[in-house]
Specification:
single chain; alpha/beta; Rossmann fold; eight-stranded mixed beta sheet; about 15% strand; binds 2-acetamido-2-deoxy-beta-D-glucopyranose; binds magnesium ion
Length: about 400
């Protein structure tokens, strides 16, 4: 008898299969992803009532072919659901791999076609540095409002998300920007964490993908003082997020490099230090938690999966909220500029595109589908762009 060994690290296929068996037996199924299928005529799956094996498991034996059929059926079944099914997971893994700038290309033919793709992309989304004068001409006489993502925009994407420090130089220029324009940092992280990185009081913070918005805390050049919390549309979700963080910490314990971050109103599972080979398995683990939490949804970012409340609130809504708070809701004379590198920033790019106001700048070294108007390659180019912005403001003030 070839018994499938027990493990909490499930592959997508086996997880789908476990749902199937759970349906058949009304019990939890724990199966391993260590290739139990290869080389055996029959497959035995152990089924236990609890994932922690407090009760002795029962065993089901299937002929190998039948097992594979069931597997296929279960996987199809999974794909048909609206949420992230196994098919979506593999396409997500592909897109995450492609968005990784360190990805090596193997053949020279690949790199030729890569170059063509890159050339046509940069024509569609020109460098915000090359287009600087054009952009600023459009902003002349209007109020620029700056929105900046944090990870991958102001700080490099590093292996350990707790060490995504901003450089001294970047902090100084963001401060200068904030002294010249209303400025907000819009991030998926918790406000506490991003504030600890940025250490500036002059700016607005929209943390947890905009679900936690705070104004400048000390008196600033706009004469406001101690505004503190402005908006928290998902407050009732805090205990639920805490619970899910604990569950995921337990579930991902056996996946080397996986990191769960509590962002207060949402949470992140970081893939940055996880071997690409097990990304799909980890994604499946993350997704499986949502079965018990229909009020939470899964979104993807750069080497990160995020779980957040299903409420209709994102970085785009946060941008609108902040413009409203600043009194620019109906103003023709405002130019919002949003700089970000991630899928979640697309919500803000889309809002700007739909408004026909201001513009989005995507930070990316590789061609990507985007609703931004311009591009910058990396945080050092963001730094340069912000410097030029401050210089431009000083110069135009001098002219007035
Ligand atoms: C399990 O049962 C539910 C409800 O009967 C069904 O919607 C779902 O598709 C089944 N899952 C699988 C993998 O068969
Ligand atoms: C850009 O906006 C369009 C229209 O809303 C949308 O269909 C598309 O998915 C967006 N692209 C990205 C990359 O988000
Ligand atoms: Mg980012």
């Amino acid at each position: 008898m070839n018994t499938v060994s027990l493990s909490l690290c499930l592959s997508p296929y086996l997880l789908s299969f476990s749902t199937l068996v759970r349906n058949m037996t009304n019990q939890n199924v724990i199966v391993s992803d260590r290739n139990p299928i290869l080389g055996s005529k029959t497959i035995t799956v152990s089924v236990s009532k609890s994932p922690l094996f407090s009760s002795p498991p029962t065993y089901f034996t299937f002929p190998r072919r039948k097992f594979l059929e069931l597997l296929e059926a279960a996987d199809k079944n999974n794909n048909n659901k609206n949420n992230l099914g196994a098919g979506k997971i593999s396409s997500w893994v592909d897109s995450m791999r492609d968005s990784s700038p360190t990805r090596l290309r193997s053949s020279s033919r690949d790199s030729d076609s890569d170059n063509d793709e890159k050339t046509s992309w940069i024509v569609r989304f020109p460098s915000a540095l090359n287009m600087f004068d054009k952009i600023m001409n459009a902003a002349k006489g209007k109020q620029i409002v700056m929105f900046l993502d944090y990870d991958g925009t102001l700080s490099p994407i590093v292996e350990d998300p707790d060490k995504a420090y901003i450089t001294h130089e970047m902090r100084e220029v963001v401060k200068d920007v904030a002294l010249n324009f209303p400025t907000a940092i819009v991030t998926g992280r918790s406000i506490d964490k991003v504030r600890a990185f940025v250490k500036l009081n002059e700016i607005y913070y929209a943390g947890s993908h905009g679900m936690d918005i705070e104004g400048p805390t000390n008196e600033n050049s706009y004469g406001e003082s101690n505004q503190g919390v402005l908006f928290q549309p998902a407050r009732e979700f805090v205990p639920m997020i805490e619970k899910v963080v604990k569950i995921l910490e337990k579930k991902t314990k056996c996946i080397p490099g996986a990191m769960v971050e509590n962002n207060k109103f949402c949470l992140s599972v970081h893939f940055r230090r996880v071997d690409e080979k097990i990304w799909a398995a980890l994604a499946e683990q993350v997704k499986s938690v949502l079965v018990d939490y229909p009020k939470l949804k899964l979104t993807q970012g750069r080497k990160v999966l995020e779980i957040r409340p299903t409420i209709k609130w994102d970085k785009g809504q946060a941008l609108n909220f902040l413009l409203r708070s600043l009194g620019f809701e109906h103003s023709e004379n405002v130019v919002p500029v949003y700089i970000g590198d991630d899928r979640t920033d697309e919500d803000a790019f889309k809002v700007l595109r739909e408004k026909g106001q201001g513009f989005g700048i995507l930070v990316s070294k590789v061609p990507k589908e985007t609703n931004a108007s311009y591009s910058l390659q990396d945080p050092s180019q963001v730094n340069e762009f912000l410097k030029r912005l401050v210089d431009w403001k000083r110069k135009t003030v001098g002219e007035e």
